[in-house]
């Protein structure tokens, strides 16, 4: 069997910063619920620009700085988004960013 890459989740960002697209490599496309349970440090995420802006497409890195603070950092454009270390899954991150 072949492992496919799926765009599993789109997480919109504030202030015209585009969105994070989460790519997972699995046998089949995960449902949004399944994707939401994936841990932040286990799958690559891509910073995807708004279509009207220059395309970024940079890989983002998840960094846990301390027991209370984590961030996602785009290797190409330098976008950095901080959030609480209690956020550990993609679903929690999406909820957190939508409620800020
Ligand atoms: Zn970027």
Descriptors for this entry?
alpha+beta, 2 helices, globular, binds zinc ion, 6 strands, 100 residues
Give a brief description:
By secondary structure, the chain is of the alpha+beta class.
List cofactors, ions and other ligands.
zinc ion
Instruction: Report the portion of residues in β strands.
Output: 35-45%
Structural shape: globular
| H/I helix tally | 2
The span between the termini is 41 Å
User: Mind describing the biggest β-sheet?
Assistant: 6 strands, antiparallel
Overall pLDDT confidence: 83
What's the layout of helices and strands?
Layout: E1 4-12, E2 19-26, H1 32-36, E3 45-48, E4 58-64, E5 69-74, E6 80-84, H2 90-99
Antiparallel strand pairs: 1-2, 2-3, 3-4, 4-5, 5-6
This protein binds zinc ion (ZN).
Describe the structure.
This protein is an alpha+beta fold. 15% of the residues lie in helices and 39% in strands. It has a domain at 39-99. The N and C termini lie far apart (41 Å). It binds zinc ion. Zinc ion is lined by residues 47, 56, 58, 74, 76-77, 79.
């Amino acid at each position: 069997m072949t492992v496919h890459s799926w765009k599993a989740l789109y997480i919109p960002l504030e202030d015209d910063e585009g969105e994070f697209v989460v790519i997972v490599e699995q046998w089949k496309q995960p449902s949004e619920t399944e994707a939401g349970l994936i841990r932040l440090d286990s799958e690559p995420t891509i910073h995807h620009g708004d279509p009207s802006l220059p395309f970024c497409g940079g890989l983002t890195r998840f960094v846990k700085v301390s027991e209370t603070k984590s961030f996602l950092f785009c290797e190409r454009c330098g976008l950095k988004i901080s959030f609480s270390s209690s956020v550990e899954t993609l679903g929690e991150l999406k909820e957190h960013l939508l409620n800020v």
